[in-house]
Design goal:
The protein has 271 residues and is of the alpha+beta class. It folds into two domains: 205 residues, Neuraminidase, CATH 2.120.10; 50 residues. It contains one helix and 15 strands, in the order βββββββββββββββα. The strands form four sheets. A four-stranded antiparallel sheet has the order 1-2-3-4, with no helix packed on it. The chain is elongated, with a radius of gyration of 30 Å. It starts with 16 loop residues before the first strand and ends with a helix.
C-alpha cells in the first residue's frame, strides 16, 4: 500500500524553502528562499512498510534538522532587500559531496556540508567582485558535470553562467566560484529553465523567454582550433612514421643489393 504522511511543524505559507538536492550521504538539503536557515531531511537507513492488516505504523521516522549559517551573513539575501526574502533558487550536489545553493537575491553561493552540518557562504561577493550585475532572480536550478568536478547554475535573470569548481573531500581548498558572460542579447529575464549535460560534456539549457538554446562548452573540452592543431600534430607524427618506414625499406633494399653485388664479385674472382 502507499503510505502518505507529514513530518515537522512549520508556519504556513511564506515560500520558506525552494527546491532541494541530496548530498553524498543521502541527506536532503532544502534550499532557503524566505527561510533564514537550511532544512535538512535525513531518511532512515532502511524503510520498513506496514502490511495492510497492521494497525501500528512501523515506518521509521526521518531525521529532520535545521542548519543555521556558520556566521550571521551566511544565509542571507542581498543588500537591495530589507525583508530577508528570496535568497536562493535551487541547488545541486557537487562531486565533493556538498550541496551548493544558487543565489537569487543573495550575493554569494551557499555551501551545505551535511556531514559536519555546516552551512556557509563560499566564493567572492558576486556583486562587489563585478561578477554579476543583477540583484534578483539571478540563477535557478543547475547541473553537475562530473567529468570536470563542477556545478553550473542556469541563468534565469543573470547575465552570466555561474560555475563552481568543487574539490574532493580530501582536499581542504575552497571551492572556486567564477562566472562566464552570456552572449548578447543578455538582458532578457527568465531566460532559461532546465539543462542537461550531454554525453560529450557540453551543457545545453532550454529557452524559457530567451530566443535561443544556451550552449556551455567547459574548458576541458578542446576548441575547434585546438582540435585542428592536434590533428595537424598527429598527421605530422604519422608522416614521420611513414618516412622512417620508407628509410628502413630503402636500407633493407640497399643491403640486399650490396650482398647480391658482393656474391657476384666473389663468383667472378673464383673464375
Amino acid at each position: 500500500r502507499v503510505l502518505v504522511t507529514t513530518h515537522g511543524n512549520y508556519p504556513l505559507g511564506g515560500h520558506k524553502w525552494h527546491g532541494a538536492a541530496a548530498s553524498a550521504d543521502g541527506t536532503i538539503v532544502s534550499v532557503p528562499n524566505n527561510a533564514d536557515n537550511v532544512l535538512c531531511i535525513k531518511p532512515a537507513a532502511h524503510a520498513m512498510y506496514t502490511s495492510p492488516d497492521t494497525k501500528v505504523d512501523t515506518t521509521p521516522e526521518p531525521e529532520i534538522f535545521i542548519l543555521e549559517g556558520q556566521s550571521p551573513g551566511d544565509v542571507a539575501t542581498g543588500r537591495h532587500r530589507d525583508d530577508g526574502k528570496y535568497k536562493y533558487l535551487g541547488a545541486m550536489a557537487g562531486t565533493d559531496g556538498h550541496v551548493y545553493c544558487f543565489p537569487s537575491g543573495s550575493e554569494r553561493v551557499l555551501q551545505v556540508n551535511t556531514v559536519k552540518r555546516i552551512a556557509r557562504s563560499v566564493g567572492p561577493n558576486l556583486l562587489d567582485a563585478g561578477m554579476e550585475p543583477l540583484f534578483q532572480n539571478k540563477w535557478q536550478n543547475g547541473l553537475t558535470n562530473d567529468k570536470e568536478e563542477c556545478v553550473y547554475a542556469i541563468p534565469l535573470g543573470a547575465e552570466t553562467v555561474l560555475r563552481i569548481k568543487t574539490h574532493s573531500p580530501e582536499d581542504d581548498n575552497e571551492p572556486i566560484v567564477t562566472t562566464w558572460k552570456l552572449p548578447l542579447p543578455n538582458k532578457t529575464l527568465e531566460k532559461w529553465e532546465g539543462g542537461v549535460v550531454a554525453e560529450n560534456g557540453i551543457i545545453y539549457c532550454m529557452p524559457n523567454n530567451h530566443k535561443a538554446v544556451l550552449q556551455v562548452v567547459p574548458p576541458y573540452i578542446p576548441s575547434r582550433e585546438q582540435l585542428h592543431k592536434a590533428n595537424e600534430k598527429k598527421e605530422e607524427e604519422r608522416e614521420r612514421a611513414r618516412e622512417y618506414e620508407r628509410q628502413q625499406q630503402q636500407k633493407e633494399m640497399d643491403e640486399k643489393k650490396a650482398k647480391k653485388e658482393q656474391k657476384r664479385q666473389e663468383r667472378l674472382e673464383k673464375k
